[in-house]
């Protein structure tokens, strides 16, 4: 079955380069974020963001969309640690119009889903996007990359600045 993702990618595998590193990973598999309430966060992830969720523990669930990478969402209640927009999760959509529709939906559904700050839509770092803060103070970027799939280009372009190399 062909999907939008399979149309953009003929394969989703990026074989790790041979490196003389201490750890020899074969895949970056997951990340973690905190939430106050699994029930409320799951409702937001599924109904607003369109993500797939499965609860695999009494205080945790896995969240994914499109690729074999997942986010583990851990319920921590009032021990939540808010983050800034620089620590955000990116969600790609198919067009600038979909970015605009998501932005309008975020504004219209602020109260329903506990959405906090919402930035204006901008064209920056090669994408058309906006950021917003969810009910758990996690940040999301809804973006459209007109050239296709940004991940491919980001690594195909290679290092542009060398200052991070040891």
Automatic annotation (TrEMBL):
It comes from Burkholderia theae. This is VOC family protein. PROSITE patterns: VOC. Residues 27-145 form the VOC domain. Pfam families: Glyoxalase (PF00903).
């Amino acid at each position: 079955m062909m999907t939008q993702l399979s149309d953009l990618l003929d394969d989703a595998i990026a074989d790790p380069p041979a490196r003389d590193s201490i750890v020899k990973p074969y895949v970056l598999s997951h990340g973690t974020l905190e939430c106050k309430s699994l029930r409320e966060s799951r409702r937001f992830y599924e109904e607003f963001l369109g993500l797939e969720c499965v609860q695999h523990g009494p205080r945790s669930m896995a969240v994914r969309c499109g690729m074999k990478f997942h986010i583990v969402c851990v319920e921590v209640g009032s021990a939540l640690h808010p983050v800034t927009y620089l620590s955000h999760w990116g969600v790609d959509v198919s067009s600038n119009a979909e970015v605009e529709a998501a932005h309008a939906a975020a504004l219209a559904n602020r109260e329903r889903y506990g959405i906090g700050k919402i930035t204006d839509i901008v064209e920056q770092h090669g994408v058309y996007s906006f950021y917003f803060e969810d009910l758990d103070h996690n940040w999301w970027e809804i973006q459209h990359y007109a050239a296709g799939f940004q991940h491919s280009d980001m690594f195909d372009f290679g290092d542009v600045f060398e200052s991070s190399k040891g």
